[in-house]
Write a structure and sequence with these properties.
Strand content: under 5%
Radius of gyration: 20 Å
Number of strands: 0
Structural class: mainly alpha
Distance between the termini: 38 Å
Shape: globular
């Protein structure tokens, strides 16, 4: 079934969609610099910090899998507007939160909103991209979320450190941002001109021919997202500990360097062959994590930030390489199921290792937990490097 489209032009609609996706991921990182403040005020442990972080990723994954194809049936705009409504509700929960239980509620709602929005926003990039610039949509779709994480953490940290009402100001600003995004989405053209049958059961699977490459890529995939999960949950506290400072901006800067470098490298490496992206990304992860362990061991903040930049290269380029390497191997009618499998691995790696790290912090302290975590994830990245080498040797 084909629908007529009306509203703003293709280019304006494309960039409104990009800004909306940016805001969702900006908001996802905004609470990270506040976790230590919440923990001190409401007296909860590092395990709880990582659990508050993890429920967001799990809720996002479930919502993404269940509603990922919903916009194919009802249209992109209605689904995005519904996600924006849920996201606005989560911002108001953050503003009124008076205990850690309300943080869990806010993060779950935020995860659901982001998961519901991810599918239609990603599909809208393809629907609205200009035929003259076919590489623009995948580049913006890959870089925008990571850039949102980078700037969300840094901006929130700056507001916590220097702005009034540090526990609420960033959320009030986001309320305004999401309200404007909602107005923009109502004005754009409907990106999808066709309608498919409604199907809410997720399709998850990896074709037999793709399984060797998928299994070889899993260690690299897990290592990259496990790094991201650690930085967004415990990274600010570690940066402050190494710097011997209480300035929250330093904590936000750690996330900004990791994700900002990752986003820049995605843009820079977008035209490289996919196997080269994956290989160089794994190499950068191995080197970056090795230097990170050294920086924590000698308690050097400067070396830690240098290591974070190297790790950010690996985080961004390896993610781009994994996606491009695997998706091109899948048959067209199996790509959706493959992407679902990739996202399951990515978001589980984003959430669960961070919770393990939080448990370790309560047992052996943040310094030693960071050493063990960095070494374990570095070993995974090394396994990913070996798997990438085998894929290249086998022509995968």
């Amino acid at each position: 079934m084909v629908r007529e489209r009306s509203g703003l032009g293709r280019e304006a609609s494309f960039w409104i969609v990009a800004v909306t996706l940016f805001l969702f991921l900006f908001a996802a990182a905004a609470p990270s610099p506040l976790y230590a403040v919440y923990a001190a005020r409401w007296r909860f442990s590092a395990v709880t910090v990582t659990e508050v972080f993890a429920v967001y990723a799990i809720a996002l994954l479930v919502a993404l899998l269940v509603t990922g194809s919903l916009s194919d049936s009802v249209g992109r705009k209605p689904v995005v507007l519904a996600a924006l409504a849920i996201q606005l509700a989560s911002m108001f929960v953050f503003v009124s939160a008076s205990s850690v239980e309300w943080l869990f509620v806010a993060r779950i709602a935020q995860g659901i909103a982001t998961g519901v929005a991810t599918g239609p926003l990603a599909a809208s990039f393809v629907d609205l991209q200009s035929p003259e610039h076919p590489a623009l949509a995948p580049t913006v779709n890959s870089a925008t979320p990571i850039l949102g994480l980078a700037l969300g953490a840094l901006s929130s940290a700056a507001l916590v450190q220097y702005g009034p009402d540090p526990l609420h100001l960033v959320y009030w600003l986001l309320v305004g941002g999401f309200a404007l995004a909602g107005a923009g989405i109502t004005l754009i053209r409907e990106p999808s001109v066709t309608r498919a049958a409604l199907r809410l059961m997720p399709r998850v699977g990896v074709e037999r021919a793709v399984r060797p490459a998928f299994l070889a890529a899993v260690p690299c995939l897990v290592a990259g997202w496990a790094v991201g999960g650690f930085y967004l949950s415990l990274g600010p506290s570690l940066a402050l500990r190494l710097a011997g400072s209480s300035n929250r901006l330093i904590g936000g800067l750690a996330i900004f360097v990791l994700a900002g470098v990752g986003a820049a490298c995605i843009v820079a490496a977008r035209s490289w062959p996919a196997p080269r992206n994956m290989l160089l990304g794994c190499i950068a992860l191995v080197i970056g994590l090795a230097v990170t362990v050294g920086a924590v061991a000698v308690s050097s903040a400067g070396l830690f930030f240098a290591a974070t930049a190297i790790t950010g290269i690996g985080f961004g380029v390896a993610w781009l390489g994994v996606l491009r390497t695997l998706v091109v191997l899948a048959s067209p009618d199996a790509r959706g199921a493959l992407l679902s499998a990739i996202f399951i691995v990515a978001y589980v790696a984003f959430a669960l290792p961070a919770v393990i790290a939080g448990y370790l912090v309560t047992r052996i302290g943040l310094h030693d937990a960071a050493l063990w975590y960095g070494a374990a994830v570095g070993a995974l990245a090394l396994a990913g490097l070996a798997g990438t080498g085998l894929m290249r040797r086998g022509g995968g």
